[in-house]
Amino acid sequence: MTEHHNDLLMDKRLEIPEYYNFAAQVEQYAQANPEKTALFVLSESGEEVKLSYSQLNRYANKIGNALKSLGVAHGDKVFVLVPRGVEAYGIYLALIKIGVVVLPGSEMLRSKDIEYRVNHSQVKAVIAFDGIVGEVDIIRSECPLLEHYIVLGESQHGWLSLEEIIEPADETLEAANTRSDELAFLSYTSGTTGGPKGVMHVHSWPFAHLAVAATYWLDVQENDLVWATAGPGWAKWIWSPFVSAIGKGATAFVYKGRFAPEGYLKLLEQYPISVLCATPTEYRLMAKVSDLERYQITALRSACSAGEPLNREVIDTFQRVFHVTVRDGYGQTENTLLIGTFKGMEPRPGSMGRPSPVVDVAIVDENGGVLPTGEVGDIAIDRKMVALFKGYLNDPERTNRAFRGDWYVTGDQGKMDEDGYIWFEGRSDDIIISGGYTIGPFEVEDALVKHSAVAECAAVASPDPERGHIVKAFVVLKKGHTGSDELIHELQDHVKRLTAPYKYPRKIEFIDDLPKTTSGKIRRIELRQAEKQQKSVM
User: Are 52 and 32 in contact (CB under 8 A)?
Assistant: First the structure.
């Protein structure tokens, strides 16, 4: 472990300035390094676009001025529904700079997902790409507070063109004097019951993330070409492709194509990518490519994985073939990197790593008491941690449930060994993490029961060698309906139409009854454990 890392471990303090604006910090870097490449964008067809820090800053300033001219003001909320590309970086920087609260949204959201977020948070404007405009239009009449509709590309009925409104805008823009404790990001994450939770993060969050995660985990340096594969709309995009890359003055590599293991390996071979942050699923599939040794990947020096524990054989494969150790990291939408294999640390494959330098982590029991070394309990962090969320928007009950005395309880269980390494044991709730996506069972079940053939259902995580877990639904059919392969496909398509496609159940099993408590609550834990046991004997 590095000497500086040891110092931080012993101190655990991070001085947060009273006022901070991430976009203003990026502008300062752009003024000092105007020609430095900020973005290297590659399309699936091979078209390359480069943008310097000076160009990116001017682009963001024009967007910010255009939004201000529409009446979007400091403290308003703006929903962003755009894919990977230059626009995402410019829009996020612009919104942060003028003090607007950013709502990241996946390009895969459906109309009901959008309606819930818009109304729950009282969004004033939405910025979207053409492919999702139709989903927004469906719910326009149900969102009375939504005033401005802005689309990438040409204007269309009821939508202003982003490119047209920024054309006359000024290229200079003074950053809002945002307090560090002022709301900056509102990311929605799935819950086990009810609608998604609006996770509130303040302007100091990027400051804290840069100080630790970007520095000691990703190990981003100015001369790096950083490829973080997460897409906009997810907290992980803010973590790595956005804050960690341009906040450290590096060049962000943005690939706009779809994932293909051979394709990713070719890109790592073709371009001097020195830092890679990908999902466990992406690493697993790359490690399975036959004749892996034929790829000459020489620039890569730092590789990180986050979302769920990475298999030891995958870590061993990358070490053997490419001489790089893929380092695990663990964090949540509600915080930042909490636990990881930091640079200079001895990796222990299968372990989540050790606590972040500025995080107090403990394994606690149901009463919040700290458990001894080796005992399994809830992974918890000190509620005073600087990058911890400020609560769930408009939901004090769920906010209170997230805490146990002096601890924020993550919902994951694990144990700590005598050297402080933490080993993941499983979820303590019903949340499903599949291929890096966080999925609440309620969302899947709510969609399924809207089908005329479904009486009731339960969705759980089912172990999967590539995605870690997949969504499996146990379905009780109404009288007069019989389970079949045709009905399985019909139900899967039904879920895809009603909610984001990544949430659909990849497996469906028809059963006569669901296990329940005496009060009638579904015992998903029985179904989950049965799935785990069945996979272990296969």
Answer: no
Q: Please name every residue paired with 379 in a beta bridge, in sequence order, or none if there are none.
A: 363
Q: What is the pLDDT of residues 295-311, one digit of tens each?
A: 999 999 999 998 777 87
Q: Helices 261-270 and 280-287, interaxial angle, to 10°?
A: 90
Task: Tell me the three state secondary structure of residue 110.
Answer: coil
- Per-residue buried b or exposed e for 416-454, using 16+ beta carbons within 10 Å of the residue's own CB: beeeebbbbeebbbbbbbbbbbbbbbbbbbbbbeebebb
> What token pair was written down for 517?
């408590």
Dihedral over alpha carbons 95, 100, 103, 107 (to 10 degrees): -30
End-to-end CA distance of the chain: 40
pTM for this predicted structure? 0.85
Which residues share a beta bridge with 79?
A: 103, 126
The helix/strand/coil state of 404 is: strand
Q: What is the spatial order of strands in the sheet that 468-477 belongs to?
A: 454-464, 468-477, 507-510
Helix (H, G, I), strand (E, B) or coil at 238: helix
The H-assigned helical ranges of 344-501 are 396-401, 441-448, 485-498
Instruction: Give, for 23, the enclosing helix (H) or strand (E).
Output: helix 22-32
Q: pLDDT of 45-92, one tens digit each? A: 999 999 999 999 999 999 999 999 999 999 999 999 999 999 999 999
Residue 475, judged by CB atoms within 10 A of its CB (0-12, 13-18, 19+), counts as buried
What phi, psi does 451 have (nearest 5°)?
Answer: -80, 140
**Which residue ranges form the domains of the chain, and what is each CATH number?**
3-413 (3.40.50.12780), 432-536 (3.30.300.30)
Which residue type sits at 194? Answer: G
> How many whole angstroms separate alpha carbon 199 and alpha carbon 123?
15
Angle at 108 between CA 102 and CA 112, to 5 degrees: 80
Specify the pLDDT at position 79: 98
Whether 378 contacts 401, CB under 8 Å: no
Position 220, amino acid: V
